[in-house]
Structure formats: C-alpha cells, structure tokens
C-alpha cells in the first residue's frame, strides 16, 4: 500500500514514527499521525489545517491529546457514558495517579528496562487505530478516484474514524465535512 503514498503522505508516516519515539510510546498511534500532519508545510493537508485554524491552535491540540492519554484514552463520549452510570472519570484518574503516579493510565509507556512490542525488529508497530487510519485513507482516495494517497487523505481518514483523534480535531474545527469543503476549493469553509 505504501507505494501508493505521495511524498507528503510518506513524510507524515515517518513523522508519526518520530513523534512516537520522542514521546517514548510503544506504538505509533493516530495521535502521532495528527502531530505529524501538524508539522507539515506546503501540502494539501497543511493548507486545510491552516484554513480551519487548527495549525495556530496546535498547543491546544497537543494539550487535548495529552489529557486524553492521561485519562487512559477515553473520549468525551466514553466519559459521558460512564458519568451516566455514576462513574466520575476525573475522580478515578485522580485516585489512580495518587496511588501510581501522574500518567499511570496513559498505557503507552513501558516500565524502564523492559522491551516493548516490535523491539526485535527495531521498529515501533502501528496501533490498530493507526493501521485503520491508513486503510481508511486508501478507501477515501479510491472513493475520490485519486491515483495516490496524499496527506489530505490521511487527514480525512483521521476525521472520519470515530475516536479521540477525530474528537480532538472536531473540537478544533476540523470535521470531515469542513476538511472536505476546504480541499474541494468551494471556499465555503471559514478560517477560525
């Protein structure tokens, strides 16, 4: 599948691996793909993110992703569902962190001195969600009758797949429909 990726899309995938390494994550996740997309300049996805105002709110995006990791990857919908049955996620996180330290629920860090998945090959594996995003980007490209997979297809895939990354993007103004409007050149999307 990677032979169908444009130079920009390949740079995003490599950038995601670098973000995972910098954050010492065992796997490359969807959030790493988003961070790598935010690093890009002069590409279709970077144009869409800038047009929607996401690029200038990068710090807020990073805080949202970090907070999500801190609470074990639970989305707002997950938290609402748990609140509906009387579970206060903030209280659970607080108690776990009091007992085990800040970030104990993050789940993407391995204990010192242990070997994570994929260490024999020297490469970090992609999470199920990240693999699904790559597959979704192919489906989006095929659906749009594009010959190759660009970074814009990766961005669209991140907004299309339910979960934390799509939620963070939507909270910052980048829904699937908004990104499609910007990429389509209809001029209907407003920056901001």
From TrEMBL:
<dbReference type="GO" id="GO:0005524">
    <property type="term" value="F:ATP binding"/>
</dbReference>
<dbReference type="Pfam" id="PF02861">
    <property type="entry name" value="Clp_N"/>
</dbReference>
<keyword id="KW-0645">Protease</keyword>
<feature type="region of interest" description="Disordered">
    <location>
        <begin position="110"/>
        <end position="129"/>
    </location>
</feature>
<keyword id="KW-0547">Nucleotide-binding</keyword>
<keyword id="KW-0378">Hydrolase</keyword>
<dbReference type="InterPro" id="IPR004176">
    <property type="entry name" value="Clp_R_N"/>
</dbReference>
<feature type="domain" description="Clp R">
    <location>
        <begin position="2"/>
        <end position="192"/>
    </location>
</feature>
<protein>
    <submittedName>
        <fullName>ATP-dependent Clp protease ATP-binding subunit ClpC1</fullName>
    </submittedName>
</protein>
<dbReference type="GO" id="GO:0008233">
    <property type="term" value="F:peptidase activity"/>
</dbReference>
<dbReference type="GO" id="GO:0006508">
    <property type="term" value="P:proteolysis"/>
</dbReference>
<dbReference type="InterPro" id="IPR036628">
    <property type="entry name" value="Clp_N_dom_sf"/>
</dbReference>
<feature type="compositionally biased region" description="Basic residues">
    <location>
        <begin position="117"/>
        <end position="126"/>
    </location>
</feature>
<keyword id="KW-0067">ATP-binding</keyword>
<keyword id="KW-0677">Repeat</keyword>
């Amino acid at each position: 599948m990677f032979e169908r990726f444009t130079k920009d899309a390949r740079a995003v995938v490599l950038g995601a691996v670098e973000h995972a390494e910098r954050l010492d994550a065992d796997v490359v996740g969807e959030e790493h793909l988003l961070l790598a997309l935010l690093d890009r300049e002069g590409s279709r996805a970077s144009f869409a993110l800038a047009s929607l105002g996401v690029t200038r709110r990068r710090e807020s995006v990073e805080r949202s992703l970090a907070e999500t990791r801190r609470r074990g990857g639970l989305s707002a919908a997950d938290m609402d569902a748990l609140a509906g049955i009387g579970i206060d996620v903030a209280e659970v996180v607080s108690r776990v962190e009091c007992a085990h330290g800040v970030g104990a629920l993050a789940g993407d860090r391995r204990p010192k001195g242990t070997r994570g998945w994929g260490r024999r090959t020297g490469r970090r594996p992609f999470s199920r969600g990240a693999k699904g995003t790559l597959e979704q980007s192919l489906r989006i490209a095929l659906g749009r009758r594009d010959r190759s997979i660009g970074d814009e297809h990766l961005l669209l895939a991140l907004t299309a797949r339910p979960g934390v990354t799509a939620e963070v993007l939507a909270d910052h103004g980048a829904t699937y429909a908004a990104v499609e409007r910007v990429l389509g050149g209809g001029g209907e999307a407003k920056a901001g």
